Amino acid sequence: MKHTYIDICKIDIEGSEYAWLRAEPFNSFNRIGQILIEVHDYLPNWVQISYTDVQNFLISLEKKKFRIFHKELNIFGFPCCMEFSLIRVDWNK
Predict the structure, then answer these.
(1) Which label site among 11, 40, 50, 73 has the fewest CB atoms less than 10 Å from its CB?
(2) Rounded to 5, what percent of the chain is helix, strand, coil?
(3) Who has greater pLDDT, 27 or 60?
């Protein structure tokens, strides 16, 4: 069976989420209903990411029609990351 959509996409790739967002083809986001993602404030080798970088990451997802419906600090990974749950605004169509 060939799947044409993903209801929920869980992303926990230890700082590589920034590279993933740049590399993922824009049209593939049309086939995802929800994204659950851990966003780090560092890259591998503990390179710090600024608040602006995290904000721009989330803005990029908003440009792809995703909206945050939940966020929380990852207390087990503190102070490295936040968990975000996003839903595509036109997913029910």
Answers:
(1) 50
(2) 30, 40, 30
(3) 60
- pLDDT tens digits for 52-64? 878 888 898 899 8
Q: Sign of torsion, CA 85 88 89 91?
A: negative
Residue reference for tokens 């990411």: 49
Closest CA to 37 of 3, 88, 81, 4: 81
* 63-93 pLDDT tens trace: 989 999 999 887 776 567 888 999 999 877 6
Phi, psi (rounded to 5 degrees) for 68: -75, 130
Residue 63: exposure state from Cβ atoms within 10 A (0-12, 13-18, ≥19) = exposed
Residues 69, 85: contact at Cβ < 8 Å?
Answer: yes
